[in-house]
């Protein structure tokens, strides 16, 4: 049986309050659990000491017998000094999606075409101008 340490939601609508519980991995989020080892109240200020309360002894025990904390609970354990959490690495986090890449390519193509058109337009009058000057000189002579 896989055991996880996770949050179980309680409280009223738009007023969440969580219990940190040890539960069977297949049990529902707010369903039956083996033991409650702490609480988390996200409505309190981040520096409030009552925001997260964890029974460190019981948390250490459950970790020692193989219980796996969820990412959010692992963050709480890391702050409390119960278990160090490895930093996650997501190299694709800042990378745009497929549609955004397509739009960027289309925009770059349009910009290239506009630059080529502008270069062609600026080159054409420069070629005509010397010819016009030459005709003026020939008419003056």
Automatic annotation (TrEMBL):
Per the record, where are the segments of Low complexity compositional bias?
116-133
Quick one: where's region Disordered? 81-141
Question: Which keywords does the record carry?
Answer: Ribonucleoprotein, Ribosomal protein
Q: What is one GO cellular-component annotation here? A: ribosome
| InterPro entries given in the database record | Ribosomal_bS16, Ribosomal_bS16_CS, Ribosomal_bS16_dom_sf
UniProt superkingdom: Bacteria
- Point to the regions of Basic and acidic residues compositional bias: 81-115
Q: Which family does it belong to?
A: Belongs to the bacterial ribosomal protein bS16 family.
Write the protein's name: Small ribosomal subunit protein bS16
Q: Which organism is it from?
A: Novosphingobium decolorationis
